[in-house]
């Protein structure tokens, strides 16, 4: 299957026809209006384990529902749980493809079996966090940095990657925690497994606690990407062959109500091109060949944006135009991305009370990195912390040490910050130490930037080599993701294939793009399956073919060199424009890099609060 984006860009490199990414009918999830076919699936998802009489799709599976006599109990945290539950009949890797359910203790009346297990019945009246067993939201964590595999839980102390399981159950949530295969098995293995787990959870609707019409996913980095894919691709038929192959439950929906995405590494069909458009100007010491590749990818991204038809929230069409300096650094899309950066800085200034203590803010991957530029006066080091109040925060885990992603660029950001800044003006002066790129109005405590290029050189430099995701030697993590299950990488970017035509790389790209997987699909189909935009923008063939989540929360550290600012911004625009019923909460967090970025507070608590807000609507 070839979708329109590839055909259009490659046909003329780049004479593209414009199509709109306009508003669609209300987003369809298991709890909202849906096309006729998916409505039947939503009905099945809302039924008990015995198919609802209102469902026109028969539930088919050889799997048993959860055995209510085999619950274990964590007394310290008041959690009943079962683990090791198979969510598919013919798993490709049984060491990963199991899951666990974790339930607040109050939702069960339990009888001790005397052997460490309990026979439980659902208590229909007890409340935790304002929820009952019937109304509790269900959380699916996606802890897959770099699209790596995720281990299945063993007990209630198992790490879900985002706080503790008890953080969620104490809020009244049910957790459906599944293991899944990773990038070594090749896309779409990971998302296929998670969809199968969501289907198995719905198969148990009415058997175990949890509102199966209110499933929320959460993830960061590659996990944020797969959370976004789950949010956008609900019930997509592209997954049917893969789900059937592992024996997933059929006749129930795998759509979700909400998707939380921290720093999602997604939109991989144009991620290379977006990276060069946004950060290519920060590269130094490139060969003539490499510079040509970088410039061509940046130009290709402009053609993509001008064909995509994104719109701002006020309905303004977002496009790029040629510029006197840089590559397509003008136009309404450029202005919008520039405003995203300025909003991030102004949020920082608004949220912050001076003075700042730099040393107390060195955790959470807040360091901007790089040494002080030659001649830079004042303070150097890491981003200062807010004194006495909440400041931008992220998880303390260094994801970059775990995801096995190549970050080979040696570029150095022009700005580094440390020490104590007594006033906002002192902080702005430090930003402007290497060159003036921030204009600050102390009367309104707001700032603007001179250009995107000045911002990226100061704070967001390229950390990955040329072809950041589909590397020329096919050695990047995403190359493995679009490989064929043998752990080896393969090329997947047809735009880049056109750019390298005539070079020594051409043959490898041509061969990889033509190869088929076990389901008979070439890589363009698999890339589409892993692209949330494919389901939400009319430019793509997959538009309106899936049940898209209604609620989206997207956060990213704006300083990260892992992906362009465009990645999260475009995802937020597409989700908001897909339906007037959609709710999108998007923010870039100043001073943070690749982490569970938040403007303030604890990321787990903020996620729980957002779910509560969604449930109240």
Radius of gyration: 24 Å
Enumerate the strands of the largest sheet in spatial order, edge to edge or round the barrel. 1-2-3-7-6-8-9-15-16
Strand content: 5-15%
Give the averaged pLDDT, no decimals: 87
Which structural class best describes the helix and strand composition?
alpha/beta
Helix content: 25-40%
Q: Could you give the distance between the termini?
A: 39 Å
Number of distinct helices: 18
Query: Globular, elongated, flat, extended or rod-shaped: what is the shape?
Result: globular
Uncertain segments are 1-56, 362-389
Summarize the main sheet: 9 strands, mixed
Count of extended strands: 16
Blueprint (SSEs and pairs):
Blueprint: H1 4-12, H2 36-45, E1 72-74, E2 79-86, E3 98-104, E4 108-112, E5 118-122, E6 138-142, H3 165-169, E7 174-178, H4 189-203, E8 215-220, H5 222-232, H6 240-245, E9 258-262, H7 271-279, H8 288-308, H9 332-351, E10 356-357, E11 385-386, E12 420-421, H10 424-431, E13 438-441, E14 446-449, H11 452-459, H12 477-481, H13 494-499, H14 506-514, H15 523-529, H16 532-536, E15 551-557, H17 565-578, E16 583-589, H18 603-616
Parallel strand pairs: 6-7, 6-8, 8-9, 9-15, 15-16
Antiparallel strand pairs: 1-2, 2-3, 3-7, 4-5, 10-11, 10-12, 13-14
List keywords for this structure.
617 residues; 16 strands; globular; 29% helix; alpha/beta
Notes on the protein architecture:
With 617 residues, the chain is an alpha/beta fold. Helices cover 29% and strands 12% of the residues. It is built from 18 helices and 16 strands. It has a nine-stranded mixed beta sheet with strand order 1-2-3-7-6-8-9-15-16, with helices on both faces. α7 (271-279) crosses α8 (288-308). The model is unreliable at 1-56 and 362-389 (pLDDT under 50).
